[in-house]
Amino acid sequence: MNAMTAPESSREAPCPLHRADELTLGGRTAKIMLGDALYTLRITRAGKLILTK
Prior knowledge:
It contains one helix and three strands, in the order H-E-E-E. The chain is mainly beta and 53 residues long. Strands 1-2-3 form a three-stranded antiparallel β-sheet. The protein is extended and about 35 Å long. The chain has a domain at 20-52.
């Protein structure tokens, strides 16, 4: 990369940021639709995320 060209990553569209605790409204789960499919986002006791169909 030379000084006149921007790095490839700076050309990508910005990625939205969502807080898991806001998606779950302070609870442990949220439902997410993708097309006709319904997914469940779950926050585990260890603070990890699990997405299932």
